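Z., the sequence and structure:
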Amino acid sequence: MLRLRSARAAVLVVLALVGCAATKTQPAPKKMGLLCVRGAPDDAQVYVNETLVAHAAALAARPLPLPVGSYRVEVRADGFFTLYRDVELGPDKTQCVEAAMRRVPEGESGG
């Protein structure tokens, strides 16, 4: 009788441990912010941390969701000086880059 109780107890302990091992904790969802660009020529290319992400017209119409954090935004357009901005995205916030770009004077190279 004592052996049967010990065996049952051992089985219950094993089942409990298996149940704990099978339960996976879900990682916390990343907090997101939104990035938009306004005022740039529609065909301007927008880079985030040196990666092309969209044209300015697309980001004016529909902001880009990104994890919360710091980013380097670069806006390039033919005939305009390249615009650089450092932005900090907060959780559930929209950060808009006002891209009032300056034209390159005729005869000069922009960039």
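The beta strands are 32-38, 45-48, 51-55, 64-67, 69-76, 83-89, 94-98. Confidence is low (pLDDT under 50) at residues 11-15.

Let me know what you think.
H.
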